[in-house]
């Protein structure tokens, strides 16, 4: 996303939402890497939830993560 990420409205909205919420980071590090969240089940269950950031500041839906985690079945030994 590099420099074009700073010109996107959603990025600025996410920044101000975090700032108003009291988030303060150290602003160290690379800063251009988008992240993600995966919930992976045991054995052949595979990926139960996948969330990839599309722009800086995208947040995963926490109830979806909990719902996916509850679907994990213990692997038979």
From TrEMBL:
Q: Looking at the record's lineage, which domain of life comes first?
A: Eukaryota
User: Which family does the UniProt entry place this protein in?
Assistant: Belongs to the peroxiredoxin-like PRXL2 family. PRXL2A subfamily.
> What InterPro entries does its record include?
PXL2A/B/C (IPR032801)
- Please state what the protein is called: Peroxiredoxin-like 2A
Does the UniProt entry include the keyword Chaperone? Answer: no
Species: Cettia cetti
Q: Tell me where it resides.
A: Cytoplasm
According to the record, the signal peptide region is none
Q: Which GO terms describe its cellular component?
A: cytoplasm
- UniProt KW keywords: Antioxidant, Cytoplasm, Redox-active center
Answer whether the UniProt record assigns the keyword Cytoplasm to this protein: yes
* Single GO MF annotation: antioxidant activity
Please tell me where this protein is predominantly located.
cytoplasm
Matching PANTHER family:
PEROXIREDOXIN-LIKE 2A, PTHR28630
The organism's lineage is:
Eukaryota, Metazoa, Chordata, Craniata, Vertebrata
């Amino acid at each position: 996303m590099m420099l074009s990420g700073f010109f996107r409205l959603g990025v600025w909205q996410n920044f101000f939402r975090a700032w108003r919420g009291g988030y303060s980071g150290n602003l160290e590090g690379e800063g251009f890497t988008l992240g993600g969240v995966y919930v992976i089940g045991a054995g052949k269950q595979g990926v139960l939830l996948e969330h990839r950031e599309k722009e800086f500041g995208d947040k995963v839906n926490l109830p979806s993560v909990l719902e996916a985690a509850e679907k994990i079945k213990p692997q038979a030994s």
